[in-house]
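Support reply, case 0932

Customer input (verbatim):
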Amino acid sequence: MGNYLGTTEKEQQEMLKLLGLNTLDKLFEEIPDKVKISELNLPKGGSEREVKRKMQELAEKNKVFSTIFRGAGAYRHYIPAIVNQIAAKEEFVTAYTPYQAEISQGLLQSIFEYQTMICELTGMDATNASVYDGATAAAEAINMCIEKKRKKALIAATVHPMTLSTIKTYYDSRGIEIVVIPEKDGQVDLNKLEELMDETAACVLVQQPNYFGNLEKVEEIIRVTKEYKAKAVVAVNPLSMAVLKTPGEMGADIAVGEAQPLGLPLNFGGAYIGFIATTNKMMRRLPGRIVGETADVKGKRSFVLTLQAREQHIRREKAASNICSNVAHCALTVSIYLSAVGPEGLKKAAMQCYDKAHYMADKLSALSEVELVNDTDFFHEFVIKIPVEDEKLLQRLEERGILGGLPTERGLLWCVTEMNTKEEIDEVVSIVNELIREEAAI
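Our regenerated output:
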């Protein structure tokens, strides 16, 4: 892409002349002097080389880990080179909102392909053009379930804390009751769920795998939910869907999640992309854009924005949602990734995550006084309790260039992906064992 070039002084004078003005001050004379800034106290500009050197100095203050064993919602996976190569093409990077949507056939097709792949992954019938992130998707899904006489949402305590926080922020002032279902041994307490369910419940939201890595009894949770005619919302890690039962197979009404594991790097926390997929029965409740496939007057395959107008979502109190846009470039990147790796490649990546995580969990839990907290099977995250201070271990790992597990109330939450090698896992196990022996000798 070309560099940004501002207007020259000559061009500015030509524009002022066209407007019948002599100076820039005349152009802005309607603005009160008290809010104007006479000058910016900026340092003297530097050359490109000087600026680059300064930026490198600032960047070097960041701690960049070459070995990562932490996930908790943002995951490091292998991204084939072709993904960024295609996604970085100028026609994709510079594309903007299609106000005259049907003219932008290429952009609409890329969104349609994304929607198709998300439906295939989740086992659902329809999805939208994406939302901002996984937490937003979960909050928006609850809004899809709210009815006149059903204004209570039950949220599993084992969902990601940021998801729960986002949901509470969404509905704090909207007259919607948010009830947290207590956990028992790192899973939804089914007895408590039964106690909390009643005819006012609009939906139940559960995460699979949950925040602690455990696999929930989702089908049992959905059964209880449906007994009260409430909607079942399942938040999933999309990569795990290559080896686990999909929300569609389990009977969920809505599937939500964060698609970052599908071709998006960690990026210091974003931009990420949330997905919402649902059944045909609830399709009209989906927020934001939906791209549909049709045929033009000549019978050629073509694409349109369908079911709802963009403006539908900016009518304040009448709106189904305030989501009126989507993260199209992230959706494109996800589509390229899924196309590049294919179904078998996705399954292989998921199986490597599963196998390596179980190898590491077995090795760690075999050490003296180390406890694997997960009471059920898990995908690629698990919680370990060790007989030394978490921070002391994390500091020791950091000294070796390793980002260790995330401290939680249940212990250290570890994550293993296909990017982690056996040698890296064995090194962590050796460091943990070394530290335990040192503590025991004191």
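We compared this against your earlier run and they match. Two observations from our side: Residues 366 and 372 are 9 Å apart (CA to CA). The first helix runs from residue 9 to 18. Please reopen the case if you see a mismatch on your end.
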